[in-house]
Design brief:
- The protein is of the alpha+beta class.
- The chain has seven helices and four strands; from the N terminus they run H-H-E-H-H-E-H-E-H-E-H.
- The protein has a four-stranded antiparallel sheet with strand order 1-2-4-3.
- The chain starts with 6 loop residues before the first helix and ends in a 7-residue tail after the last helix.
- Bound molecules: flavin mononucleotide.
- The site of flavin mononucleotide has 13 residues, from helix 4.
Length: 204
């Protein structure tokens, strides 16, 4: 897949790709993902999103352990009693990702530097200045033929993430994006029809 894919093709075909090969992703592509993320807007153009690209096996294992700690109890009830075949299928990929997280070539952690100590729900205050960059990263990965998915479960305990990645206490870790070459096929996303989710001028 070349990076000349149209923007609309990328947007409409950017599924969460959780099943990834162990094959290494060239460093220049990882830098390209972050460079694209860095072009996104931020509040007051603060540009305080920070990115940690985790490739070291021991460091990946720490994040994989954190993910398992929070993902297992979160998905267990739905795994036992899925609402639909589609949900069951999605959960199987979440389990696959949980079991293989430490083998995925790169785990990218998107952070925001508050420049002062942050705690509790305060860590989400400026999340809106990081998520546009995360979406840029996901679309760029798609255009480059790389699989990626936004995840948050591993980051539920910010103190543990800070300790694992040696982040300053001013950093909040907002999203972890495992990146690699996809095992599965790319395809279109399935979403509610636009008529259902929009109105002009007022809602009723
Ligand atoms: C804020 C946010 C948090 C998410 N957290 C997780 C997560 O912890 N683990 C995971 O496997 N997927 C996570 N996802 C991915 C969603 O499950 C996925 O985007 C959604 O199911 C749509 O999937 P699709 O694009 O393949 O249709 C998250 C997505 C968002 C936007």
């Amino acid at each position: 897949m070349s990076d000349e894919m149209s923007l609309f093709d990328a947007i409409y075909n950017c599924r969460a790709m959780r099943r990834l090969e162990t094959r290494e992703v060239p460093e220049e592509l990882l830098i390209r993902l972050i460079d694209a993320a860095n072009q996104a807007p931020s509040g007051s153009n603060s540009q305080r999103a920070r990115w940690v690209v985790v490739r070291d096996p021991a460091q990946k294992q720490k994040l994989a352990d954190l993910n398992r700690r929070f993902a297992e109890p979160y998905i267990k009830p739905s795994l036992e009693n899925p609402e639909s075949e589609a949900q069951a299928k999605m959960l199987r990929t979440v389990v696959w990702q949980m079991d293989h997280m430490h083998e995925i070539p790169a785990l990218i952690v998107a952070c925001f530097d508050y420049q002062e100590k942050v705690e509790g729900l305060g860590v989400y205050r400026s999340a809106g200045s990081v998520w546009p960059g995360i979406q840029n990263l996901l679309l760029t990965a798609r255009a480059l033929g790389l699989g990626a998915a936004p995840t948050t479960l591993a980051l539920r305990d910010q103190d543990l993430v800070r300790e694992a990645l040696e982040l300053p206490e001013t950093f909040a870790a907002l999203c972890m994006i495992p990146v690699g070459y996809p095992k599965g096929k790319f395809g279109p996303v399935t979403r509610r029809p636009v008529e259902e989710i929009m109105r002009f001028d007022r809602w009723s």
